């Protein structure tokens, strides 16, 4: 007969979960539980002699855990009830002492899976003892559900799948932990994503190795929604997993649904983050005979992709150097589906280092220069002027060294892009900046450009002399120590450098187009007229000579660089007036010269 006091203790124990050990006589506990039906799982637990003996040392948390596992399925299907169970679970593991439970006896796989998913995405528990760690320490392992007479069920969405599909960076470290629980079966979710795919994507080398030892196909071909394992390992820069897959027979030329080979994948990375990792991965793939000439669905080779994405010239150099050593001819002049070669793309994206690499490895300079609407297309109007001018002029110099002749359309595309970014705006007075900004003057006098010329002296040189000096010295020497100037002085200085660098280009083309437009004028007259003109006047001449409207410029400029159409029109009118005045002046000079010659004879 169960005494009232014992019954109250046991019921209170079950309802409140007191945080202390309560040791009850095994027989009394069994009798009490059987009569009140409170812990149904515990009732079955104590029916065996071994469990009956161990019950005397069970803690209250252990018994409460047995109760949680025995909750009816209806409770688990109700969101509020599930949350209560999860909260109780967290409360239990926070104060757990003693023997760890065998969770597989209290919870089926579906419930464990749900608890793990909640823990992976949990943001409220701050105990520092994640439920997932508790499950691992308990020794719980997921087991494949096998029904006699049927095939094993592999189609199942697990906590591993749910965690892997999350975009939250905090979940990253939980994936390897989950694989300590799901360590044998390669489950597949509804989108054909497998545990093997996830292990490759998250760099879990030991898990990948174990799957392969168990006979997993290294390619693990899925439907179109999932990339091959090798692509996933490359995308996340897990070199050890990549090498393991390649050694295990992964095809280095297998394309995904978009036609991207593993080499395309490496070359597609954006930004400068971990450049050395990408270079090592590319080298590894090439050593396993990856084909550098395979094209994706856009007709782009890996070389096209490098030039289109980030312009990592070192990566391009490695690709070209290794293939050169392997006697593999990389098609540097191949066109994509739009007919664009890697060199055209590199020029359009203003990648001077990439242009140099391509030219060194045989890129043809007889290419068609990018059209005006494609040239510098990826840059926004928020870019600084030097970000457009400096690389463009370096590219022009590199192309001309290899024998390229800049044609009129190319010259206009270049000049118009400069105009769009503010080069033709009214020049700032650099002398006034030096006078009014003491810091600028002090830095300029101290900084040398070249062996024996201070920046201050350089800024005092006549335009033609300054152009010659600037051509001989790398741009960085002029900009590296002038980063902390007053905003007005910095803008004026950069504008002056850009004008100095480009004036010769504008002047040559203005003269050429002016002569073509006015073939009856003497060459000497044209040169004298063009020589003293400012950048904005030279651009105006090019626009007038080629019958180009300047109205487009007002439409593309940002508010801080806006030019009114009336200003453009007045500038053209001003240029025409200057031309008339200069014509009269030259005509007088020409007549005087003829008179002098006549008198001598």
Automatic annotation (TrEMBL):
> What ranges cover the ANK repeats?
225-257, 258-297, 338-363
Q: Which Pfam families did the record assign?
A: Ank_2 (PF12796)
SUPFAM superfamilies in the cross-refs: Ankyrin repeat
Q: Which UniProt keywords apply?
A: ANK repeat, Repeat
Q: InterPro entries of this UniProt entry?
A: Ank_repeat_dom-contain_49 (IPR051637), Ankyrin_rpt (IPR002110), Ankyrin_rpt-contain_sf (IPR036770)
PANTHER family given in the database record: CYCLIN-DEPENDENT KINASE INHIBITOR 2C-RELATED (PTHR24180), POLY [ADP-RIBOSE] POLYMERASE TANKYRASE (PTHR24180:SF45)
Q: What is this protein called?
A: Uncharacterized protein
